[in-house]
Amino acid sequence: MWIWTCIDASSKYLIGMHPDERGKEVGHSFVDEMISKFRDPLEPVYMTDGYRVYTEAFLKSLGEWSIKPYGGRGRPPVWKFGYPDGFNYGQVVKTRNGRRLEKVEYKVISGMIPEGWFNTSTVERMNLTIRNCMARLKRITQNFSKDIVDLEQSCDLFRAMYNFCRPHMSLGAGSDKVTPAMSLGLTDRVWSLRELMTFSHRENIR
């Protein structure tokens, strides 16, 4: 079982979290869903590891046909299917030998990546937080999930709790407590679990 995750590195907002197998079909579906959450899908700078499915999924979701202007000399250019202008996407590819990290490569797949932005530590730390907080993902316990539906619902509950009820240490200054949802302006306070569980759901809230 694989936990697909998507997080905004600046606000620490957990955008998406989906338990499923690894694979092309699942990866494409997850990327499509994450892209749909942005008003402008070309605004973010996307960063992933070197899993090839991500490259294919972004191309399938956002790719477009284009052709270079013809100057009148030589062979005319041909139409090509590729990433759109303004799409910024990079990969951090780590090569390991067992548990030992041997090499880290930074690849610009499309557009321009600002200096210092090649980093996947936020999502890697998020994966650790998820496994530390969710007993359903721990094998040597009686709480280990045996049903995918229960696990999906548990992930949805954790994502809501993480975004609205759990202050993030890197967001607040001094004694101020700031949650990822507060960082994005979705709320002006830290929610209690009671408030979260009794909140009237609306379909337009993502």
SSE layout and pairing:
Layout lengths: L1 E6 L6 E7 L3 H12 L9 E4 L3 H11 L1 E3 L13 E3 L5 E10 L2 E11 L10 H13 L14 H17 L15 H4 L9 H5 L9
Parallel strand pairs: 3-6
Antiparallel strand pairs: 1-2, 4-5, 6-7
Helix pairs in contact: 1-2
Q: What Rg do the Cα atoms give?
A: 20 Å
* Fraction in helix: 25-40%
Strand order of the largest sheet: 3-6-7
The number of helical runs is: 6
Task: Quote the average pLDDT.
Answer: 87
Largest sheet: 3 strands, mixed
Query: What structural category do the secondary elements indicate?
Result: alpha+beta
Categorize the overall geometry: globular
Percent in strands: 15-25%
The unreliable regions are none
Question: How many distinct beta strands?
Answer: 7
Report how far apart the termini are. Answer: 24 Å
Question: If you had to describe this structure to a student in words, what would you say it looks like?
Answer:
With 206 residues, the protein is of the alpha+beta class. It has 6 helices and 7 strands. It has helices at residues 24-35, 52-62, 121-133, 148-164, 180-183, 193-197; strands at residues 2-7, 14-20, 45-48, 64-66, 80-82, 88-97, 100-110. Strands 3-6-7 form a 3-stranded mixed β-sheet, with no helix packed on it. A two-stranded antiparallel ribbon has the order 1-2. Strand 6 and strand 7 form a beta hairpin. Helix 1 packs across helix 2 (52-62). The mean pLDDT is 87.
Features:
206 residues, globular
In short:
The chain has 206 residues and is α+β, with helices and mostly antiparallel strands. Helix content is 30%, strand content 21%.
